[in-house]
Design a protein that fits this description.
Elements: E1 7-13, H1 14-24, E2 27-28, H2 30-38, E3 42-52, H3 62-70, E4 74-79, E5 81-84, E6 90-93, H4 97-107, E7 113-117, H5 124-132, E8 136-141, H6 152-157, E9 160-163, H7 164-171, E10 172-173, E11 189-190
Parallel strand pairs: 1-3, 1-7, 3-4, 6-11, 7-8, 8-9
Antiparallel strand pairs: 2-10, 5-6
């Protein structure tokens, strides 16, 4: 589904990608991810979307955000919002769907194929709009987790569904054991 002359753009929903990879038992090697998709066409831009906690002295996602910013990704961040759920647990909300959709529509005239790393069904309308503009759209997510991480309506709409587990050998890195309670990047963010 990829053509060598295609101008590609990647749109990575950071918390969604992290959750899917974690459910499949591997960590993403973001350098390998860029290399893999650059080999599939002419990679024009790789956007990475995430919310960050600005009022904390140390954020577990900060090292990743800094690395991505210096290594070929266009980083789009906004302040995360903290709240307490009905069970009294501290939660962090950082939905980046609108930012991703606006960027996709703005860059669409310059791109042949858009690859969205998310299974969020809210992106179905975006995919449909991009297809009306003559663009091919692929989604990277998984049906192999319990529950599946991709919404059925999104999977039906896209031109190409890429099972993330099938990419684990080319974009994954060995998972190191984590100390109990250790935070790692996106895992505390919820949409």
């Amino acid at each position: 589904m990829f053509y060598r002359d295609d101008r590609l753009a990647l749109f990575i929903d950071g918390s969604n990608l992290y959750s899917a990879a974690r459910a499949l038992g591997f960590d993403i090697d973001y350098k390998k991810l860029l290399t893999e998709f650059a080999s599939r066409g002419k990679l024009v831009r790789a956007f990475y979307y995430t919310a960050v906690m600005e009022n904390e002295e140390y954020s577990p996602i900060r090292p990743l955000v800094d690395w991505l910013d210096y290594n070929g990704y266009s980083l789009i961040t906004k302040p995360a919002k903290e709240y307490t759920d009905s069970a009294g647990r501290r939660k962090i909300k950082g939905n980046m769907d609108i930012e991703l959709a606006v960027d996709a529509m703005e860059i669409a005239p310059y791109i042949d194929h858009l690859v969205i790393f998310s299974g969020d069904g809210d992106f179905r309308s975006l995919v449909e709009a991009l297809q009306r503009k003559g663009k091919r759209v692929s989604v990277v997510s998984t049906i192999r987790s319990q529950p599946p991480m991709i919404a059925d309506e999104l999977r039906r709409q896209v031109d190409n569904f890429i099972e993330m587990n099938d990419l684990s050998e080319v974009i994954g890195r060995a998972q190191r054991p984590r100390a109990e309670g250790e935070l790692d990047g996106e895992h505390d963010l919820v949409d």
